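Quick check before the chapter quiz. The format below is the same one you will see on the exam, so make sure you can read both the input and the output lines.
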Amino acid sequence: MTRVSLTINGEPRAADIEPRTLLVYLIRDELKLTGTNVGCDTSSCGSCTVLLDGESVKSCTLLALQADGRAVTTIEGMADGGTLHPLQDAFHRNHGLQCGFCTPGMIMAAASFLRENASPTEEQVREALEGNLCRCTGYQNIVDSILDAAQRGEAT
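Here is the expected output.
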């Protein structure tokens, strides 16, 4: 077992893990933050996307040890108490989800993207989401949600 220490959603946390443990399993199984989903285990679907030091990463292909000493933000860390993050609110207002399985990863990828490009075009949003799959919505409402959050200027 190896000790890993990180800041998750602003809170210092530590766990003893096997060195081969993936970040997604540290988050879900050890830290009990189940909003981050396991979809494909190959980085193809993006449902496991979290922010690592503010940058979106697919936690199913990152060793937990690679997050040692770093800051991780999961979907649970986006809201401020009972107030939804502007991206979460935009997804709600624009019906940017159906089954919800991909939604946490989409929101995390969008958060990272909007920090880099606060006024994106529809084409840029679609390109930014290429690594995140949704099997339900056809993406239009997801794209509309992200554009809405960006236009309101609240998403970063």
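If your answer matched, good. The mean pLDDT is 94.
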